[in-house]
Amino acid sequence: MSRMGTEFKVGLFTLLGVGAIAFAVFFVSPELFDRKEKKVYKTALKDASGILINTHVKTNGVNIGRVSVIKLVENTTEVELEVEAQILIPEGSEIAVRTVGFLGDKFIDVVRPEKGGAPLANNAFIPPAKNTGDIAEVMGKVGSIADDMKKVTENLAKVLGDKRGEQRMEKIAENIEKLTEAAKNILQENRSDVRALVANFKEVSTSLKEVMNDDNKAKIDRILANLDTSMDQIKGASENAKLITQRIEKGEGTIGRLINDDKTADDIQATLKDLREVLSPVTKLQVAVETHVEARQDETNQTYFNIRLNTRPDSFYLIGFTSFPDRVRDTATETLPGSAGKTAIRETIRDNKALRFNLQFGKRWGWIGARLGLFESTGGAASDLYFWKDKFKLSLEVFDFSDKTDTTRRTAHLKAYASVLFFDHLVAMAGLDDPTKYAENTTKVRKKLNPFVGAGLTFNDQDLKTLFGAAAIGATGAGSGL
Hints:
Blueprint: H1 2-28, E1 38-45, E2 56-59, E3 62-73, E4 76-84, E5 94-99, E6 106-111, E7 124-125, H2 135-160, H3 163-189, H4 191-211, H5 214-249, H6 253-260, H7 262-283, E8 286-296, E9 301-312, E10 315-335, E11 343-365, E12 368-375, E13 378-387, E14 392-399, E15 413-422, E16 426-433, E17 451-460, H8 461-481
Parallel strand pairs: 1-7, 2-6
Antiparallel strand pairs: 1-4, 2-3, 3-4, 5-6, 8-9, 8-17, 9-10, 10-11, 11-12, 12-13, 13-14, 14-15, 15-16, 16-17
């Protein structure tokens, strides 16, 4: 009987032990018997200290799941959370690591937004919160503040802890005492000035009170109302400007297309390129002015004034005028008075002077040149040969072509001459003029040739700029002298 009693006691003790173990397992780890549907969410933590497998996951202080996986990935820790599927985790939720008390365990808190969005899907990522407000974080900040306070107290102890520090403190106290005594003396000595200053303040406040009467208040109110209106108008103008800029950014309107459309920009660039090509000869234009006088053997002289426009190195335009000397002899037979019927021939020489114009186009091929256009208001052509860097030139001009009824010359007005340039500005020339011209009152070419010599000046645009600048400086100096 005693044997049966012992076996009964052992069996009963074993059953009690198994029940206690089952009770502990059920209440300590109830998730082992939890068959509810779960959802998995992921997050990434920089510091996962205190987070273990089966660490509680809470929201609003209620357990909703546990940590199932902890994995180290590069510089962060990837954590997987198992949460009951029936718990709504909306978009915009964040993860915070919190501590239970000062020395308690850590848990993961799912911070849900006040106005949640759509529920997160399974395996969705929940970002960590930037500011958790955890006790550990607060304690860390308190610790850093304590370290800073410790450094400050140590520095104060180094500065004031010895005899020199005590002397400094005594000097500071003495200086404060002297400063207060000096302030007291200043107030006593200037008591009347202080009273006058207070009286002035009173007068100013009284004047302001008088200024701020009802009429002035109404005016100020109107000014403020106008300011409000002006600000509203400025606001409206700024909004209009904003709308305009937005339309321009979208490419709307002419300016918008001009700025945003690449084709328009390309067209503008092409147009500018064509314009530069058109204006390029003008920018490279060189101007030369030339004037000279020719004296001929038949006692006539002629003055020339020409402007040469060099549009290119190999082409130019010549524009000018000349005084045309035309000497005419008028003869008349008359009876002399008191001469018994004798007659005599009276000759009158008359000079017809007029202006004739030159308008020519010239072209060069190295040292050979040609001109075509108006020569002394008549059509003609010319050829030029250039030597010694254009300082010596041989020219032949043919113009004023004659016809069958012409009584002046046989074929055309020929003019051949040579010109030399000295010192870049002085021109000397010599040649023959009109060798096919008829003798007077005949239709035969005159036997005597008509040579001529000439001299003149020439200037280019740089010389003209220098002359004009010097003239302007001289005029300024003369004006200041007056």
